[in-house]
Amino acid sequence: MEGIIAIWQRDLLKFFRDKARLFGSFTMPILFLLIFGGGMSGSMETMMAGSMPEGAGEFNYVEFVFPGIVAMTLLMTSIFSAMSVIEDKDFGYMKEIMVSPISRVSIAVGKMLGSATIATIQGIMLFLLIPLLGLSYDIMALIQVIPFMFLLGCALSSLGLLFSSLINSTQGFQLTVQILVMPMIFLSGALFPVSNMPAWMDFIVKINPVTYGVDVMKKVMVDIENMSSTVMDAMGLNLTLFGRQLTIFEEVIFIVIFAFILVFLATVSFKRANA
């Protein structure tokens, strides 16, 4: 545990000392909020209003898309934070901790927890934009979603750690991850509902872990108790698998299983790559 905590703490210190990374990480989420929240909100709200029954109330697209932007931040930060493994190899730090009595499993877990914590912190910092955007999420809902943000960050950072253990250059890592990240964002329901898609695309949506993360975050943060089933369908909040609507608990279980599998694969790959 001391080794895990030491590596965890080191990654956190590196993050807070790197001011450019700290502020630069908000560029993409804020850009997406401006483009999708400001530029497309009118068109999306008009389109969604046509698919909702009378008396359902107004559809606030910014309120709908904000949890997706937070999930997108978790995805990008978690995966790209794992790139520090490649940097540690280049600067010789990895060789130093490899000759220490710390097990390689502990090194992999420490890296995963460090990346997930950084991603969660950045996701929480986005909450500061809520009053500026004129949104009104319940404070208890924001608190309740934080543990799940950390869980999703663990799963996604394990994915990044898996790639960083297989790729030896930062350029190759960035190119590979960028090819993976954008489809995971757009096919997750983060920016628009993913219902009524072609079968092959719907399959990708259902195996995408970010889909379940986005759905849980929206169900927790958005007031769905007062929504009808028709409205939830229009907003893409009735996620189904094999024709059965999934509950929040089932989606969390899926993320936990996904996280354990990726942690195992990342640890095995990490041990082989650094044997």
Secondary structure layout plus pairing:
Layout lengths: L1 H16 L1 H6 L2 H13 L1 H10 L10 H21 L2 H8 L1 H6 L5 H23 L12 H28 L3 H17 L12 H9 L1 H13 L7 H6 L5 E2 L2 E2 L2 H26 L2
Antiparallel strand pairs: 1-2
Q: Which strand order spans the largest sheet, edge to edge or round the barrel?
A: 1-2
Radius of gyration: 19 Å
Computed structural class: mainly alpha
Q: Which overall shape is indicated by the principal axes computed on the Cα atoms?
A: globular
H/E series: HHHHHHHHHHHHHEEH
Q: Which regions have little confidence, pLDDT < 50, spanning 5+ residues?
A: none
The overall number of domains is 1
Profile the largest sheet. Answer: 2 strands, antiparallel
The helix tally amounts to 14
How many β-strand runs?
Answer: 2
Tell me roughly what share of residues is in helical segments.
Answer: over 70%
Subcellular location: Cell membrane; Membrane
Family: Belongs to the ABC-2 integral membrane protein family.
Keywords: Cell membrane, Membrane, Transmembrane, Transmembrane helix, Transport
Main location: membrane
